Amino acid sequence: MRLNTEVALAAGISAGALIAYELSNGSSWFRLWLKDQLSPMVRIGTVAELYIHPIKSCRAHMVNEALCTDFGLVHDELRDRNFLIIDATTKKFLTARQLPKMVLVETEIRNNKMTLMFHEAHSLRSIISINLDDVVSNADIIPTVVWGTNTNGYDCGDEIGEWLQKSLGSQEPLRLLYFVPGVNTSRKVVPEQNWQFNKVPQRSDEAAYADLASYMAVSQASLDNLNSKFEGREFSMRNFRPNIVVGGCPEFDEDRWDEIRIGSHVRFTCFKPCSRCVLTTVDPRTGVKGADVEPLKTLRQYRLAPGALREIYKQSPIFGVNMGVDEAGEVKVGDPVFARYKPTPF
């Protein structure tokens, strides 16, 4: 009898230890199963649009399907924010905040040959191509810093640097960096615990050249709400540079997303509201920064962070949500989207 009691006690301790381990492991099947039982996901809409921005701050590609990876969306040979323009002298990264004409640079990659096209006044002004195999074989790696974290990339060479400087009207010499996962230094994105009112997920994501997360999602209704505040003027989703646009859910529904699932298994955790800056004022069609500071000015009237979060985000309004991928896979336009909600917004 005593032996049976000891066996039962040992089994109970082992089971308890297993449950404790599974609960502490955020990606475990048991934890996911338990969360689904306690707080089920509900269908909120469908994938309306997918965007890939091969060069940070340059023109986006709208695609019908993409592979979700740790480093962002991938479609054929296009990877999101896999190239970065830097100041050749200071090695500081540059965006359309400093060089608004960057939004007019379009990227194509086929058979590892990258072609850049500069469009202005609705016409193609110049074009240049490079072989990415040559870029890698040259192995000229340049270090840089993106929002306080060290990274690096393969230098794409003098010719493309000079082409970018001329096309973008830069007073300073430029370089284009190419990120190759596993070779170049990836950046760790670790959420800060004061980023939102609700419990911030403990996680560490990898990023290439994205600002703070490899994924940003926004609802179509949020953009519709913003545009309703203007007469005779309409802003594009390209002003906000998301990866995933969700249709069918209410405006600013993303404020309350804890996790989302696309299709049957591709999962994301939402860990930070997406705060907005002057980049939203650059017209994606003309590459001109709006003198009236719109739509940022209007967003500041009703989308500033509430309460204590105002001290963090200050005058940067919230529009969209930053996410990290938990379960990779393919997604496509029209896929159903499910969400698990937080108790309160943000």
From TrEMBL:
<feature type="domain" description="MOSC">
    <location>
        <begin position="174"/>
        <end position="340"/>
    </location>
</feature>
<protein>
    <submittedName>
        <fullName>MOSC domain-containing protein</fullName>
    </submittedName>
</protein>
<dbReference type="InterPro" id="IPR005303">
    <property type="entry name" value="MOCOS_middle"/>
</dbReference>
<dbReference type="InterPro" id="IPR005302">
    <property type="entry name" value="MoCF_Sase_C"/>
</dbReference>
<dbReference type="GO" id="GO:0030151">
    <property type="term" value="F:molybdenum ion binding"/>
</dbReference>
<dbReference type="Pfam" id="PF03473">
    <property type="entry name" value="MOSC"/>
</dbReference>
<dbReference type="GO" id="GO:0030170">
    <property type="term" value="F:pyridoxal phosphate binding"/>
</dbReference>
<dbReference type="Pfam" id="PF03476">
    <property type="entry name" value="MOSC_N"/>
</dbReference>
<dbReference type="InterPro" id="IPR011037">
    <property type="entry name" value="Pyrv_Knase-like_insert_dom_sf"/>
</dbReference>
<dbReference type="GO" id="GO:0003824">
    <property type="term" value="F:catalytic activity"/>
</dbReference>
